[in-house]
Amino acid sequence: MSTATLEQPPAEAAPIESFTVTFLIRRFDPDVDTEPRWQDFDVEMYPTDRVLDALHKIKWEQDGSLTFRRSCAHGICGSDAMRINGRNRLACKTLIKDLDISKPIYVEAIKGLPLEKDLIVDMEPFFASYREVQPFLQPKTAAAPGKERVQSVAERARFDDTTKCILCAACTSSCPVFWTDGQYFGPAAIVNAHRFIFDSRDDEAKVRLDILNDKEGVWRCRTTFNCTEACPRGIEVTKAIAEVKQAVMRGKP
Amino acid sequence: MTAIPFPDEPRRRGTNWEKWGWIYMRISGVVLVVLVFGHLFVNLMVGEGVKAIDFGFVGGKWADPFWQWWDVTMLWLALIHGANGMRTVVNDYTKPGTVQRILKGALLASVVVLIVLGTLVVFTFEPCPAGSPADLLPSFCAA
Question: Which parts pass through the membrane (chain B) (predicted)?
Fold first, then answer.
């Protein structure tokens, strides 16, 4: 073993092959268009690139008017949920190598929420449903001064899955019931209600169960599993909804 | 930056029929599996099988209160189960408004008519009504 020196530079790694990938993006500029239109872009991509990288390349190098949301670009903030080849995905978690690049890749805004521009929708109806389920801890008793509220590992594990939600709206905007009239609370709101309903430190589960036992509540769920399939965090959304249904029937978590 | 309005009242109150509808679908579904497959087994496989079915076979079944209640239970459960499913489809595929109300009204009307007629027939069925001309009666009535 010898220490690598400048006299012996490492062998040049084989160049990684890049491909020209065609993206068909559903554009909509409210100032110009009356209807959304599909526009195609050819982008040079590596298999390890993500759809978000393609959108960046288009915006930075080809058409600066392309509009989309993204913040962290690493699957945590939940800003860049979009419909990629007909499935709701986070653009920052969808690798080019996982898509069939022999055909164009279709990218459009998520459905069921009002389209504002290009890939951006108005998220307000989605957040309104979220607020309605009271997604915050409501304990009846105060914690001992200077102490945390004690919770066992099993009690924490009960709602662990639903704590993972990043509110990207991929589930709610993949739900055919939500598409119909947008009145249904939607999977994301129910997931976030589940997170507090089954939290042993919270005392207002009854209130949330009452809210979800509504005409537009959990009973509109048809168990189509679109939400579970869409969730970029792997939350078992349909199972969480089923657990809330059971809790509504019991009247307690 | 304005404060986010927080809803202090749930959207709607009152009896929640959606919950009972959901529970009804589960229970009637399980019962219907037994009733429908029992019905098919008795009609199509027992004894002579499907060849035995004729006017007399049905008349014979409906002379027995057991089969009367079996069929009436099946009729009510299946029609309400099916209509509730159709109502769900209407909710999912139409926007609230006149069309939705017409479709739901038509569903309700057809279910009520079918349930009333069906129940009436099952309990009042008389294969050999007294005083009918002999040529209109099935052959076994003469006995």
Answer: 21-46, 66-84, 105-125
